[in-house]
Amino acid sequence: MAFSSSFHRPKKPHSNMLSLIPSFHTVLLFLLALSAVAIIFLHTPALSPCSTTATASSSRRAFSGDLRHVDFSWNSLRLTSDRPPPTALRIAVFSRKWPVATAPGGMERHALTLHSALARRGHRVHVFTSAPSSGERPPEGGEEEEEPGRPRLHFLSDARWRCDEAWGLYEAEAARGGPFDVVHSESVALFHRWARDVPNLVVSWHGISLEALHSGIYQDLARGPDEPMTPAFNRSLAESIYKVLSEIRFFRSYAHHVAISDSTGEMLRDVYQIPSGRVHVILNGVDEDKFAPDTRLGDAFRAEIGLPGGGAALVMGVAGRLVKDKGHPLLFEAFSKLASRHPNVYLVVAGSGPWAQRYADLGANVIALGPVPPSKLNGFYNSLDVFLNPTLRPQGLDLTLMEAMQCGKPVVATRFPSIKGTIVVEEEFGYTFSPNVEALLEVLEKVVGEGKARMAQRGRACKEYAKSMFTASKMASAYERLFLCIKNETYCRYPSALLD
Ligand SMILES: *[C@@H]1O[C@H](CO)[C@@H](O)[C@H](O)[C@H]1NC(C)=O
Ligand SMILES: *[C@@H]1O[C@H](CO)[C@@H](O)[C@H](O)[C@H]1NC(C)=O
């Protein structure tokens, strides 16, 4: 099996990680203990190489050839975005939702950031999406006319997604304005029935079932001893294996796949058996103007939320929905223990959900902010020494980790393939932990032991990496190049005399 050889690859020692690099023996024991289902799945993380070893990054720099065959992320290529594209593309986008709410999901934010950038570059972008629900303000973008610089939005009659209706609108637009160069589907917005016959289709996967199966395993393991497994959870866990099987069968007929993390790319190639020339890794990006280091802003935010200025030994922060599968039971327990030993360590909690009240009851060391509006997020990240994300369900790639790193903050996150393979790829960037209270507490103790100054130093390395990988402009350049390459093979060559 392929996983055995991956252990012979030279790896950077991750001495600060909790689990030792598993010996082959340990892996064998593990595999024996798990079902066949788990075997298929669990060997995948071992296939993720530490992607920024010196050799890996120099081979990226040296890469030349057909872009369709690169297996690392396109974000690390030097694709220029300062000159206009050689041709304006006509792009159709299928997205179940288009951001209207104040706190849109990661997939919607990605769609908006990407397609607004492509429209600004002069491409003609048409978005097929569900209507805003009643009470929501209409989103930005031209609704009626094809307006240069903005995506043209085509709304369904209803807030509920109906693929057949969206397909009808798409066909009408193709009949009116001519065929599209590329059809882009955000996850399964365009259903298989229509998608399988589209030769110039690109699907971006914001989470696949194999990742859902992994998170199901972690969620069950994180269940307390007195907490019964609900029948609904048991059913969904059992069903997830059939979802993986079904995805493996139907994904193959999609023309091009974009994986938004390195590990998803490996799963699509290695487990889903999609030829590597049709799997492309393009990481999501965050707006580098909205998230940047700013000490003054961070201090102002601390004062505003009542954090003791110089009195705090260390400030940790967490953001997102405060629900069980985001790992809050683990963080709650680990942090209450930590706070009893270190009264000067603070936790700032941004977001709402069932765990909000418990955090609020934890005492003076926790500042529960409730939902933080997007305009305040930069201040929030900047007020921290370290950002935590204990998620048990990291489908796709969590934008909060990228945002924190763009603000120059180190991160502590669950040891998942996507996080290890794309985010915390260097020891310097922070810590990963196995999702249990002891492991998390041990990492938090290390963070406290290292102190603020060391966190700030780690944060600078994070910013450098984030700048080189996670910017919205890098994401947009990568998609633009992929779309050009799908229109005309000449543009698949890299570097290209015409473009690079
Ligand atoms: C979960 O479902 C399986 C069968 O799919 C059953 O064997 C097992 O006992 C169930 N576990 C719980 C805790 O309900
Ligand atoms: C592809 O692009 C190149 C360079 O712009 C051009 O010379 C060629 O004619 C194009 N091919 C097709 C099939 O459009």
Summarize the structure.
This is Glycosyltransferase subfamily 4-like N-terminal domain-containing protein. With 500 residues, the chain is of the alpha/beta class.
Explain this structure.
The chain is of the alpha/beta class and 500 residues long. The chain has 3 domains: 2-47, no CATH class; 64-285 and 472-494, Glycogen Phosphorylase B (Rossmann fold, 3-Layer(aba) Sandwich), CATH 3.40.50.2000; 295-469, Rossmann fold (3-Layer(aba) Sandwich). The chain has helices at 2-6, 24-33, 36-47, 54-61, 106-120, 163-177, 192-195, 209-221, 231-251, 262-270, 295-305, 328-341, 356-360, 374-382, 399-406, 417-423, 437-469, 472-487, and strands spanning 65-66, 90-94, 124-129, 152-155, 182-186, 201-205, 256-259, 279-281, 314-319, 345-350, 366-370, 386-389, 411-414, 430-433, 493-494. The strands form 3 sheets. Strands 4-3-2-5-6-7-8 form a 7-stranded parallel sheet, sandwiched between helices. The chain has a 6-stranded parallel sheet with strand order 11-10-9-12-13-14, with helices on both faces. A two-stranded antiparallel ribbon has the order 1-15. The longest helix has 33 residues, at 437-469. It is globular and about 65 Å long. It holds the Pfam family Glyco_transf_4. Keywords: Glycosyltransferase, Transferase. Residues 315-457 form the Glycosyl transferase family domain.
